[in-house]
Design a protein that fits this description.
4-stranded antiparallel β-sheet, 24 strands, alpha+beta, globular
């Protein structure tokens, strides 16, 4: 292979790799910014879905009853004694709304990994700094509790407050010595959401890469751990209403409903709801598949570059060997 042809192939390979990386970056950005269910929450008999910067309320038969768009996408949405609240990690700001989402007040606190409302208190969890801050409904700091491990999700169970350990199948009691190891779960994972139902703990358990989660039910009396077979792609959320449990999948835009006997019951929503989220899923799939294809293209181009390099190297060695032999044959004895 001559030098001119080699340089042409090298420039072509580099240009194609750069193009594939750019397309892959754009596809990933579009996929992450595409609409998807980020959080679920019940208030009364209304199911609220946070999708990006839009919050929508649905009746139990799946009909949309209201919608509201925030100025910027919140990192958390929850109800504090029936009052909607949003939280943004960037500035640590909580905004409290009325039932029609008119802002009533706001306050700033820490930059938390997760936030949870229990009763009249807000619990802010910092996984990196290993502490949990407890705020009152006005945002005043009541208490800071250090944790021996990286905490992640906080929830109420059997009358106590528990938190999960980031990256392990363990939950611990806040301010107490009790801990529970779910030895039938993969060790490297994280409980990302927990809900108590008469002593049975319903929770979502994320894999170690925080790519997907599974829905589990743990009964401490019967020592039974039940699981739904489906995977839910993160952000996944969990909410309950009168013993029924609702699990959302961000990528697919679905909400699965489980009956009080823990069995899968149905998919939430009327036809309009399902069609809208099917369109969103189809939109996201295009970018997901495009990103996967670009990864294969990048690998193929890299292998092509290696092949060209070794062929060129071998041809240079062959040319050098032939040149040496030619000089040896014509050299005087």
């Amino acid at each position: 292979m001559n030098e001119k042809r080699l340089n042409t192939q090298a420039i072509l390979i580099i240009a194609l790799i750069i193009l594939a990386v750019i397309v892959n970056f754009i596809a990933k950005d579009r996929f992450l910014k595409a609409p998807g269910i980020d959080a679920l929450a019940f208030n009364g008999d209304k199911l609220y879905l946070l999708e990006g910067s839009v919050i929508e309320a649905y009746t139990l038969n799946g009909e949309k009853s209201m919608g509201f768009q925030f100025r910027s996408k919140p990192d958390a949405f929850f109800f504090l004694e029936g009052v909607p609240v949003t939280y943004r990690r960037e500035n640590g700001r909580f905004i409290v709304y009325d039932s029609w989402f008119n802002p009533q007040k706001s306050f700033s606190a820490g930059r938390y990994t997760t936030v949870t409302a229990i009763g009249k208190k807000i619990y802010g969890v910092s996984a990196k700094e290993k502490y949990i801050e407890i705020l009152d409904s006005e945002g005043a700091l009541l208490e800071t509790q250090k944790t021996p491990v990286r905490p992640y999700a906080l929830f109420q169970w059997r009358g106590g407050i528990y938190y999960s350990e980031r990256g392990r199948n363990i939950i611990r009691q806040l301010g107490g010595a009790e801990e529970r190891v779910f030895d039938r779960l993969p060790e490297e994972g994280t409980v990302i959401r927990g809900v108590d139902d008469g002593g049975a703990l319903h929770f979502l358990y994320a894999d170690k890469d925080f790519f997907s989660a599974r829905y589990y039910v743990y009964d401490p009396v019967e020592e039974v751990l039940l699981t739904a077979q489906s995977k839910y792609y993160i952000p996944a959320s969990l909410a309950s209403y009168n013993g029924y449990f609702f699990v959302s999948d961000n990528a697919k835009g679905i909400v699965d409903v489980f009956a009080p006997d823990h069995k899968y019951m149905c998919r939430f929503g009327d036809e309009a709801f399902k069609k809208e989220h099917e369109r969103q899923f189809d939109y996201k799939k295009k970018y997901l598949y495009l990103g996967v294809i670009m990864n294969f293209v990048i690998i193929a181009l890299f292998l092509w570059a290696l092949v060209v390099f070794f062929i060129h190297r071998k041809s240079k060695r062959g040319a050098g060997h032939a040149d040496t032999e030619g000089r040896s044959e014509t050299s005087p004895s």
